[in-house]
């Protein structure tokens, strides 16, 4: 708790490579990045070094490194030939047909992991909404990469008229909380550390439910934080 009471607010709330628990392992992440390890292998490596954070948090941090370096981590072997492996799996539908897994589509949309040309063409031809979703993800990332407020307004205006209901709902959600969204685009600061402390306090409170008095709960909170 002392770091929040006495620390520099600018440093604590700034989004950067040194922020958070994973930031302490930046050198290890860069070591894996430069030695062509995949994200999964990198996370396994820093976990062995003592970094214990949710995988989602670690993946998001590694994505920041990719953005800064303008190149990607190596693909994990599990994903390199996922589709080509399917015909050789016993009991798999791939024994009779060539198809792309849903996971590969998600990774293509979100992480821009490559697909085979034939799969790419087939998906965009038969499921044109994937093209709109891909553009939506790229446009939204560009807003934050450039810190461009007009892009944000254009993004919301465009997707309010989208033919995809989920994108409409997303745009309406941004519009509903537009002040906070504008601040997140314009400012390098984040309230992530506050939310993290709140989450930890609530978790401890639930663990302590029915086990003692308020004095014991207070002591537990002070000990853990």
UniProtKB/TrEMBL annotation:
Residues 115-220 form the Transposase IS204/IS1001/IS1096/IS1165 DDE domain. Pfam families: DDE_Tnp_ISL3 (PF01610). It comes from the Bacteria. InterPro entries: Transpos_ISL3, Transposase_DDE. This is Transposase. It comes from Trichococcus ilyis.
